[in-house]
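Customer escalation, tier 2.

The customer says the design service returned an amino acid string that "doesn't look like it belongs to this structure." They asked us to rerun it and document both sides in this ticket. The original structure tokens are below, unchanged.
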């Protein structure tokens, strides 16, 4: 069992000098805490006991996973990608598409980090950047429906969802 702050979904304890409400303004969450929790942290299995006993088909279709973001705290975006790649069988992921909705904060760091991700994760194929804000509404992703590989589920809970579809 892994040990560390934030492991197994446990709260991250803050010392009094680490409590600063201003960190919530930029991202809507405490980026200091996010930056100090492991990217590949362990999480408890919170599925209903009946779901843990479920057997799934072996030959399920793969899917493209779309992750839209705008000025996202980099550690939370990376943790999302890690969670998907660590908790989803490889054969179910056709690709991961990052859609940057015109992030304008920390752009150089974001781009260098995204480029590193593109080299690191074989399933992470695409980064799309809007030149102006598209307001992250799903209808703005109509372009994505052409050329997406596999099943369109809009979720990374692939096994139960695809099993129900087959």
């Amino acid at each position: 069992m892994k040990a560390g702050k934030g492991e197994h979904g446990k709260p991250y304890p803050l010392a009094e000098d680490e409590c600063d409400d201003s960190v919530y303004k930029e991202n809507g969450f405490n980026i200091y805490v996010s930056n100090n929790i492991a990217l590949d942290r362990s999480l408890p299995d919170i599925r209903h006991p009946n779901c843990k006993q479920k057997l799934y088909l072996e030959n399920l279709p793969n899917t493209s996973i779309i992750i839209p973001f705008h000025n996202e705290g980099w550690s939370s975006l990376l943790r999302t990608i890690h969670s998907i790649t660590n908790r989803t069988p490889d054969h179910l992921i056709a690709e991961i598409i990052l859609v940057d909705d015109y992030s304008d904060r920390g752009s150089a760091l974001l781009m260098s980090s995204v480029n590193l991700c593109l080299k690191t994760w074989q399933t992470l194929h695409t980064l799309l950047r809007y030149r102006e804000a598209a307001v992250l509404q799903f209808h703005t992703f109509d372009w994505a429906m052409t050329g997406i590989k596999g099943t369109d589920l809009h979720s990374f809970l692939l096994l139960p969802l695809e099993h129900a579809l087959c």
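Tier 2 assessment: The sequence is consistent with the input. The beta strands are 63-69, 93-100, 124-129. The radius of gyration is 18 Å. Sent an explanation to the customer and offered a walkthrough call.
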